[in-house]
Design goal:
This protein is an alpha+beta fold and 131 residues long. It has 3 helices and 7 strands; from the N terminus they run E-H-E-E-E-H-E-E-E-H.
């Protein structure tokens, strides 16, 4: 899972997201990467992001995990008003083991995985936590 925040208390949003993800049914948080600050993507003028990846083990199906992530985002004040816009919290399912999903609103692996250097660094950092 990728976590990002560029509005409000960014570190607190990430902290609460980690707690919420680890508290989901049938889910355990196995590891977390270093938090790093990155410039916004998409060319919009907005504050820098704090980004982090976490490794989860879950019995939830991808769609159920997506719905839970969107509920966590809403609990942190996320408003979906503009694509690539600023946000209190963004949670992305980047990989789901070896599973692949191609739906209109859920693509796994995440289509931007190979384009985000910080995701590559964070995934490499988490590799030691995989079971």
């Amino acid at each position: 899972m990728a976590l990002g925040s560029n509005l409000g208390d960014r570190a607190a949003h990430l902290h609460r997201a980690r707690q919420a993800l680890g508290s989901l049914p049938q889910t355990e948080l196995l590891g977390e990467s270093t938090i790093e600050e990155t410039p916004p993507l998409g060319g919009m003028e907005q504050p820098a992001y704090l980004n982090q990846m976490v490794l989860l083990e879950t019995g939830l199906a991808p769609r159920a995990l997506l719905q839970a992530c969107q509920a966590i985002e809403r609990s942190e004040g996320r408003k979906r008003t503009e694509h690539w816009g600023p946000r209190t919290l963004d949670l992305d399912i980047v990989r789901f083991g070896a599973r692949q999903v191609t739906d209109s609103d859920l693509i796994i692996p995440h289509p931007e995985l190979s384009n985000r250097d910080f995701w590559q660094r964070e995934l490499a950092e988490l590799s030691s936590h995989e079971r």
